[in-house]
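Exercise: predict the structure of this protein bound to FE2/S2 (inorganic) cluster.
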Amino acid sequence: MARYIVCEETELPVGEMKLFKAGNTKVLVYHLEDGFYATQPSCTHVLAPLSRGKIIDGHFIRCPFHHAEFDIRTGEVHQWANFPPGIQLLNVVRSEKALKTHPTMLEDGKVSVEV
Ligand code: FES
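Solution:
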């Protein structure tokens, strides 16, 4: 495990997310009301880029492809892929899987992520 500074606190306003590299690992960093969080950048369903998705209800990330939703704080699946109708056929071989999360810290105005 190693910790990397990815950005300044002011670079990422509340309600936004951004892709960074922590060492050789790509991470998607979110600034929620209660702090900074980081997850793997791709959806566990069929690898859509979550940075093109949407933060909803303050702490879920919705995938831009088939609308799976994950809790940003834990990585847990909130709702699995359900769009468009018929996607359930694909879900037979792509079953629910949580996102990997990374411990994130704010210190002296700098955000760091452990990978
Ligand atoms: S790739 Fe994310 S829901 Fe299908």
